[in-house]
Amino acid sequence: MNELATSTSDSRDTNAKAGFGDYFELTKPRLSLLSILTAAVGYVSARSEWDTSRFLFAMLGTSLCAAGVAALNQWMEIDTDARMQRTADRPLPSGRVATGSAFVLGWSLCASGLAVLFKLVNGSSALFALLTIISYLAFYTPAKRFSRWSTEIGAVAGAFPPLIGWASASSTSPVLGWVLFGILLFWQIPHFMAIAWIHRRDYAAVNFPMLPVRDATGRATALWSLINTFLVVLCSALPWIFDLASVWYLAATTLLGAWFVCRALLFLSPNGREPAARRLFLASILWLPLQLGALVADRMIFF
Prior knowledge:
Elements: H1 3-15, H2 20-26, H3 29-46, H4 52-76, H5 78-83, H6 99-120, H7 123-143, H8 150-158, H9 161-168, H10 175-198, H11 200-205, H12 211-214, H13 219-236, H14 238-241, H15 247-267, H16 273-302
Helix pairs in contact: 3-4, 3-9, 3-16, 4-6, 4-7, 4-9, 6-7, 7-8, 7-9, 8-10, 9-10, 10-13, 10-16, 13-15, 15-16
Protein backbone atom coordinates (compact mmCIF):
# COMPACT_ATOMS: atom_id res chain seq x y z
CA MET A 1 0.00 0.00 0.00
CA ASN A 2 1.50 3.36 -0.98
CA GLU A 3 2.08 6.15 1.57
CA LEU A 4 -0.74 8.30 0.25
CA ALA A 5 -3.27 5.48 0.51
CA THR A 6 -1.98 4.58 3.96
CA SER A 7 -2.25 8.11 5.32
CA THR A 8 -5.67 8.55 3.75
CA SER A 9 -7.00 5.30 5.22
CA ASP A 10 -5.49 6.07 8.62
CA SER A 11 -7.17 9.47 8.74
CA ARG A 12 -10.44 7.90 7.74
CA ASP A 13 -10.08 5.24 10.43
CA THR A 14 -10.10 7.94 13.06
CA ASN A 15 -13.51 9.17 11.97
CA ALA A 16 -15.00 5.83 10.93
CA LYS A 17 -18.54 5.37 12.21
CA ALA A 18 -19.62 1.96 11.03
CA GLY A 19 -23.06 0.44 11.37
CA PHE A 20 -24.06 -3.21 11.16
CA GLY A 21 -24.77 -2.84 7.45
CA ASP A 22 -21.22 -1.67 6.79
CA TYR A 23 -19.70 -4.68 8.54
CA PHE A 24 -22.15 -6.97 6.76
CA GLU A 25 -21.15 -5.47 3.41
CA LEU A 26 -17.52 -6.10 4.31
CA THR A 27 -18.23 -9.85 4.26
CA LYS A 28 -19.42 -9.69 0.61
CA PRO A 29 -22.66 -11.56 1.37
CA ARG A 30 -23.51 -12.40 -2.25
CA LEU A 31 -20.09 -13.93 -2.92
CA SER A 32 -20.14 -15.70 0.44
CA LEU A 33 -23.58 -17.09 -0.40
CA LEU A 34 -22.08 -18.78 -3.47
CA SER A 35 -19.58 -20.59 -1.23
CA ILE A 36 -22.38 -21.70 1.10
CA LEU A 37 -24.61 -22.93 -1.73
CA THR A 38 -21.85 -24.88 -3.46
CA ALA A 39 -20.81 -26.41 -0.13
CA ALA A 40 -24.45 -27.44 0.38
CA VAL A 41 -24.47 -29.03 -3.08
CA GLY A 42 -21.35 -30.98 -2.16
CA TYR A 43 -22.96 -32.23 1.04
CA VAL A 44 -26.29 -33.20 -0.52
CA SER A 45 -24.68 -34.81 -3.56
CA ALA A 46 -22.66 -37.12 -1.35
CA ARG A 47 -25.91 -38.97 -0.57
CA SER A 48 -24.54 -40.33 2.69
CA GLU A 49 -26.70 -40.75 5.79
CA TRP A 50 -28.39 -37.41 6.45
CA ASP A 51 -27.39 -35.61 9.63
CA THR A 52 -29.15 -32.27 10.08
CA SER A 53 -26.82 -31.03 12.83
CA ARG A 54 -23.72 -31.90 10.84
CA PHE A 55 -25.13 -30.19 7.75
CA LEU A 56 -26.01 -27.00 9.63
CA PHE A 57 -22.62 -26.84 11.35
CA ALA A 58 -20.90 -27.41 7.99
CA MET A 59 -22.81 -24.51 6.45
CA LEU A 60 -22.12 -22.31 9.49
CA GLY A 61 -18.39 -23.02 9.36
CA THR A 62 -18.28 -22.43 5.61
CA SER A 63 -20.16 -19.14 5.88
CA LEU A 64 -17.89 -17.86 8.67
CA CYS A 65 -14.75 -18.69 6.70
CA ALA A 66 -16.13 -17.16 3.48
CA ALA A 67 -17.14 -13.97 5.28
CA GLY A 68 -13.75 -13.71 6.98
CA VAL A 69 -11.85 -14.18 3.73
CA ALA A 70 -13.97 -11.48 2.07
CA ALA A 71 -13.23 -9.00 4.86
CA LEU A 72 -9.50 -9.73 4.81
CA ASN A 73 -9.40 -9.48 1.02
CA GLN A 74 -10.84 -5.97 1.22
CA TRP A 75 -8.41 -5.09 4.02
CA MET A 76 -5.52 -6.16 1.75
CA GLU A 77 -6.87 -4.23 -1.23
CA ILE A 78 -7.99 -0.95 0.34
CA ASP A 79 -5.53 1.07 -1.75
CA THR A 80 -6.63 -0.32 -5.12
CA ASP A 81 -10.30 -0.35 -4.14
CA ALA A 82 -10.05 3.37 -3.38
CA ARG A 83 -8.82 4.04 -6.94
CA MET A 84 -11.50 2.06 -8.79
CA GLN A 85 -14.92 3.55 -9.43
CA ARG A 86 -16.80 0.28 -8.86
CA THR A 87 -15.19 -0.31 -5.44
CA ALA A 88 -14.44 3.17 -4.10
CA ASP A 89 -17.62 3.22 -1.99
CA ARG A 90 -16.86 -0.03 -0.16
CA PRO A 91 -16.75 0.26 3.65
CA LEU A 92 -12.95 0.48 3.92
CA PRO A 93 -11.95 2.93 1.14
CA SER A 94 -14.96 5.11 1.94
CA GLY A 95 -13.82 5.29 5.58
CA ARG A 96 -17.01 3.85 7.08
CA VAL A 97 -15.10 0.95 8.67
CA ALA A 98 -11.67 1.25 10.30
CA THR A 99 -8.93 -0.93 8.82
CA GLY A 100 -8.08 -2.39 12.23
CA SER A 101 -11.69 -3.41 12.76
CA ALA A 102 -11.77 -5.15 9.38
CA PHE A 103 -8.55 -7.02 10.18
CA VAL A 104 -9.84 -8.27 13.54
CA LEU A 105 -13.25 -9.14 12.13
CA GLY A 106 -11.77 -11.07 9.22
CA TRP A 107 -9.43 -13.24 11.25
CA SER A 108 -12.04 -13.76 13.98
CA LEU A 109 -14.52 -15.06 11.42
CA CYS A 110 -11.95 -17.33 9.77
CA ALA A 111 -10.78 -18.76 13.09
CA SER A 112 -14.37 -19.30 14.25
CA GLY A 113 -15.30 -21.03 11.00
CA LEU A 114 -12.31 -23.38 11.16
CA ALA A 115 -13.07 -24.18 14.80
CA VAL A 116 -16.71 -25.01 14.02
CA LEU A 117 -15.70 -27.29 11.15
CA PHE A 118 -12.90 -29.02 13.05
CA LYS A 119 -14.73 -29.54 16.34
CA LEU A 120 -18.33 -30.02 15.19
CA VAL A 121 -17.99 -31.53 11.70
CA ASN A 122 -14.65 -33.21 10.90
CA GLY A 123 -11.00 -32.55 10.18
CA SER A 124 -11.29 -33.01 6.42
CA SER A 125 -13.82 -30.20 6.03
CA ALA A 126 -11.63 -27.91 8.16
CA LEU A 127 -8.63 -28.78 5.98
CA PHE A 128 -10.44 -27.79 2.77
CA ALA A 129 -11.64 -24.58 4.43
CA LEU A 130 -8.07 -23.81 5.47
CA LEU A 131 -6.88 -24.43 1.90
CA THR A 132 -9.53 -21.98 0.71
CA ILE A 133 -8.31 -19.29 3.10
CA ILE A 134 -4.65 -19.81 2.25
CA SER A 135 -5.12 -19.97 -1.52
CA TYR A 136 -7.32 -16.87 -1.55
CA LEU A 137 -5.32 -14.63 0.76
CA ALA A 138 -1.76 -15.86 0.26
CA PHE A 139 -1.90 -16.51 -3.48
CA TYR A 140 -4.88 -14.98 -5.29
CA THR A 141 -5.07 -11.56 -3.64
CA PRO A 142 -1.34 -10.75 -4.04
CA ALA A 143 -1.27 -12.25 -7.56
CA LYS A 144 -3.83 -9.71 -8.78
CA ARG A 145 -1.10 -7.06 -8.61
CA PHE A 146 1.53 -8.83 -10.72
CA SER A 147 0.26 -11.97 -12.47
CA ARG A 148 -1.66 -12.43 -15.68
CA TRP A 149 -2.89 -15.73 -14.16
CA SER A 150 -4.52 -14.19 -11.10
CA THR A 151 -8.04 -15.10 -12.24
CA GLU A 152 -7.06 -18.72 -12.65
CA ILE A 153 -5.39 -18.75 -9.23
CA GLY A 154 -8.54 -17.27 -7.75
CA ALA A 155 -10.62 -19.93 -9.50
CA VAL A 156 -8.74 -22.63 -7.60
CA ALA A 157 -9.54 -20.90 -4.30
CA GLY A 158 -13.18 -20.51 -5.29
CA ALA A 159 -13.54 -24.18 -6.21
CA PHE A 160 -12.86 -25.58 -2.72
CA PRO A 161 -16.28 -24.99 -1.06
CA PRO A 162 -17.98 -28.01 -2.73
CA LEU A 163 -15.20 -30.15 -1.27
CA ILE A 164 -15.91 -28.68 2.18
CA GLY A 165 -19.49 -29.89 1.84
CA TRP A 166 -18.46 -33.23 0.37
CA ALA A 167 -15.94 -33.86 3.14
CA SER A 168 -18.51 -32.82 5.76
CA ALA A 169 -20.79 -35.62 4.61
CA SER A 170 -17.98 -38.14 5.23
CA SER A 171 -18.47 -39.73 1.83
CA THR A 172 -16.20 -42.68 1.10
CA SER A 173 -15.96 -41.89 -2.65
CA PRO A 174 -14.14 -38.66 -3.53
CA VAL A 175 -14.90 -38.73 -7.28
CA LEU A 176 -18.00 -36.56 -7.35
CA GLY A 177 -16.47 -34.11 -4.89
CA TRP A 178 -13.56 -33.49 -7.26
CA VAL A 179 -15.94 -33.28 -10.22
CA LEU A 180 -17.74 -30.46 -8.40
CA PHE A 181 -14.36 -28.84 -7.78
CA GLY A 182 -13.69 -28.99 -11.54
CA ILE A 183 -17.08 -27.52 -12.41
CA LEU A 184 -16.52 -24.55 -10.09
CA LEU A 185 -12.93 -24.15 -11.29
CA PHE A 186 -13.72 -23.89 -15.01
CA TRP A 187 -17.01 -22.02 -14.54
CA GLN A 188 -15.26 -19.11 -12.84
CA ILE A 189 -13.10 -18.31 -15.89
CA PRO A 190 -15.83 -17.21 -18.33
CA HIS A 191 -17.77 -15.71 -15.42
CA PHE A 192 -14.91 -13.48 -14.25
CA MET A 193 -13.46 -12.85 -17.71
CA ALA A 194 -16.80 -11.32 -18.68
CA ILE A 195 -16.79 -9.13 -15.55
CA ALA A 196 -13.17 -8.13 -16.08
CA TRP A 197 -13.81 -7.16 -19.72
CA ILE A 198 -16.75 -4.97 -18.71
CA HIS A 199 -14.68 -3.27 -15.98
CA ARG A 200 -11.27 -3.46 -17.72
CA ARG A 201 -10.69 0.30 -17.45
CA ASP A 202 -11.06 0.17 -13.69
CA TYR A 203 -8.57 -2.70 -13.48
CA ALA A 204 -6.19 -0.89 -15.84
CA ALA A 205 -6.31 2.19 -13.58
CA VAL A 206 -4.72 0.18 -10.75
CA ASN A 207 -2.36 -1.73 -13.07
CA PHE A 208 -3.84 -5.18 -12.52
CA PRO A 209 -2.18 -7.19 -15.33
CA MET A 210 -5.07 -9.59 -15.94
CA LEU A 211 -5.82 -10.80 -19.46
CA PRO A 212 -8.71 -8.39 -20.26
CA VAL A 213 -6.45 -5.45 -19.35
CA ARG A 214 -3.63 -6.64 -21.61
CA ASP A 215 -5.94 -7.74 -24.43
CA ALA A 216 -6.80 -4.58 -26.38
CA THR A 217 -9.23 -6.22 -28.82
CA GLY A 218 -10.83 -8.68 -26.40
CA ARG A 219 -10.36 -11.62 -28.75
CA ALA A 220 -7.94 -13.49 -26.49
CA THR A 221 -10.25 -12.90 -23.52
CA ALA A 222 -13.24 -14.22 -25.44
CA LEU A 223 -11.31 -17.24 -26.74
CA TRP A 224 -10.08 -18.16 -23.26
CA SER A 225 -13.65 -17.80 -21.98
CA LEU A 226 -14.91 -20.13 -24.71
CA ILE A 227 -12.23 -22.76 -24.02
CA ASN A 228 -13.13 -22.85 -20.33
CA THR A 229 -16.85 -22.92 -21.13
CA PHE A 230 -16.24 -26.08 -23.16
CA LEU A 231 -14.22 -27.50 -20.28
CA VAL A 232 -16.90 -26.81 -17.68
CA VAL A 233 -19.56 -28.39 -19.91
CA LEU A 234 -17.38 -31.48 -20.40
CA CYS A 235 -16.67 -31.62 -16.68
CA SER A 236 -20.40 -31.41 -15.99
CA ALA A 237 -20.91 -34.61 -18.01
CA LEU A 238 -18.46 -36.59 -15.85
CA PRO A 239 -21.06 -37.66 -13.23
CA TRP A 240 -22.87 -39.59 -15.97
CA ILE A 241 -19.61 -40.99 -17.39
CA PHE A 242 -18.64 -42.28 -13.93
CA ASP A 243 -22.14 -43.69 -13.39
CA LEU A 244 -22.88 -41.17 -10.66
CA ALA A 245 -25.89 -39.65 -12.45
CA SER A 246 -28.63 -40.80 -14.80
CA VAL A 247 -29.23 -40.21 -18.49
CA TRP A 248 -31.80 -37.57 -17.51
CA TYR A 249 -29.03 -35.57 -15.90
CA LEU A 250 -26.96 -35.91 -19.08
CA ALA A 251 -29.87 -34.57 -21.14
CA ALA A 252 -30.23 -31.54 -18.86
CA THR A 253 -26.47 -30.97 -18.91
CA THR A 254 -26.40 -31.10 -22.70
CA LEU A 255 -29.14 -28.49 -23.07
CA LEU A 256 -27.68 -26.18 -20.45
CA GLY A 257 -24.19 -26.62 -21.87
CA ALA A 258 -25.28 -25.80 -25.42
CA TRP A 259 -26.86 -22.57 -24.21
CA PHE A 260 -23.77 -21.61 -22.20
CA VAL A 261 -21.44 -22.34 -25.13
CA CYS A 262 -23.61 -20.23 -27.46
CA ARG A 263 -23.25 -17.26 -25.13
CA ALA A 264 -19.49 -17.75 -25.04
CA LEU A 265 -19.37 -17.97 -28.85
CA LEU A 266 -21.17 -14.64 -29.17
CA PHE A 267 -18.46 -13.07 -26.99
CA LEU A 268 -15.98 -13.93 -29.79
CA SER A 269 -17.64 -11.55 -32.22
CA PRO A 270 -15.73 -8.24 -32.50
CA ASN A 271 -19.01 -6.38 -33.00
CA GLY A 272 -20.81 -5.66 -29.76
CA ARG A 273 -18.28 -7.43 -27.55
CA GLU A 274 -19.24 -5.55 -24.40
CA PRO A 275 -22.98 -6.38 -24.63
CA ALA A 276 -21.97 -9.96 -25.39
CA ALA A 277 -19.79 -9.96 -22.27
CA ARG A 278 -22.76 -8.80 -20.19
CA ARG A 279 -24.93 -11.56 -21.64
CA LEU A 280 -22.23 -14.15 -20.97
CA PHE A 281 -21.93 -12.92 -17.39
CA LEU A 282 -25.70 -13.20 -16.85
CA ALA A 283 -25.74 -16.62 -18.52
CA SER A 284 -23.01 -17.82 -16.16
CA ILE A 285 -25.03 -16.65 -13.15
CA LEU A 286 -28.07 -18.60 -14.34
CA TRP A 287 -26.20 -21.66 -15.63
CA LEU A 288 -24.48 -22.59 -12.36
CA PRO A 289 -27.55 -23.00 -10.10
CA LEU A 290 -29.46 -24.75 -12.89
CA GLN A 291 -26.59 -27.16 -13.52
CA LEU A 292 -25.96 -27.90 -9.86
CA GLY A 293 -29.70 -28.13 -9.23
CA ALA A 294 -30.00 -30.76 -11.97
CA LEU A 295 -27.21 -32.77 -10.36
CA VAL A 296 -28.71 -32.59 -6.87
CA ALA A 297 -32.19 -33.49 -8.13
CA ASP A 298 -30.85 -36.43 -10.12
CA ARG A 299 -28.81 -37.74 -7.20
CA MET A 300 -31.80 -37.48 -4.85
CA ILE A 301 -34.21 -39.20 -7.23
CA PHE A 302 -32.09 -41.93 -8.83
CA PHE A 303 -29.32 -42.64 -6.31
